[in-house]
Amino acid sequence: MTVTGHRRMSVLIPRNGLPPEILDRIVLLLVSDTAGFTAIASLSLVSWQFRQLAFRRYYATLRVRSARHWVRSCRIDGMYSWVRSLDTSTPFFQYKLDALSRFASLQDLTLDFSADGLATQRSRCLLLFKNVAAGLSSLKLTHLPRIDVTLLSLLAGRFPSLSNLDLSCTERLDEQCCWLCYEESSSCVVHSPIPDCFPSAERLAVCNSLSAVTPDHLPSHLQSVFGNALKPLRKLEHLFLGIFLSGADMLNCHFDRCATVVISSPRTGWYSSPPFGPDRCEICLVEHGATVRERERIASALLAKLLPSLETIGWSTYFAKDRPGDDVERKATVFARDSLEGKAAMGRRGSALDKAG
Ligand SMILES: [Zn+2]
Ligand SMILES: [Zn+2]
């Protein structure tokens, strides 16, 4: 071993003789405890080296709880190299937004857009994402007012290393209070962009063609718009687009039909039933369930064809079933391989029909 090697070892091995790897494992076990910072508080007081190990693990995930918490976190020495995963909300960056660009090791970013609206989403995204490290591998945006080509193009151009992209609008629908709140919340989010919620002709074309989807008529427009916007993401493995592929009219009809239902109360007499979604409405299930599931499968097949690295594609849905990929949180996941095989089968059926014609 060289002299330099000896010197390096003497710096790395603490006086108690425990190798740093073992210490690191101990810290990892402590941090995984739910006790929070108290779990590592004593350990961080032992020595400078113990403190560095403890903080590096503890701050690997930073959940920002307020604007003040963000500002205070940015003052901690070493924070910019420790944080790998950041979970926060957009208004917390009202101060020290430029500090975001110093998180050079950031791999995983989760952002809550509840505080933004349809008018502010674009400018907020432009401002935020130019300050985020381009090497991001996982990005999750929740409570988005809309998912459109502008957003997809921005993300694909800014973060080419993404392997996991999770965008969602539909959790902005408020079913916790009353029918009025449910309906009002639905007007502030593009939860179902089919058939004509998009402002430009190009995007309208996508939606119109999607509304006319049949198993033997695959819309190429979806590929040319959503798919092309995401095409720079060559490492993308998991994509979730939290929009409903049911028509926007379906929810409006559901409001008209079901919001007027009143039920009896033994204490207060009669009152309107608590709000519920089309997934608990027999009429909506029968009228739209099968069509929407078929749309989800076809749209997934189109995206999987254009984005070969994809393994799973998810959508928000009111029609999840008891089967692999579906869950009670109104999400449907299509496995890309399955959808590609489905697409190939449809292609064979289409060419057979052509010959027969
Ligand atoms: Zn209400
Ligand atoms: Zn209904």
TrEMBL record:
<protein>
    <recommendedName>
        <fullName>F-box domain-containing protein</fullName>
    </recommendedName>
</protein>
<feature type="transmembrane region" description="Helical">
    <location>
        <begin position="26"/>
        <end position="48"/>
    </location>
</feature>
<keyword id="KW-1133">Transmembrane helix</keyword>
<keyword id="KW-0812">Transmembrane</keyword>
<keyword id="KW-0472">Membrane</keyword>
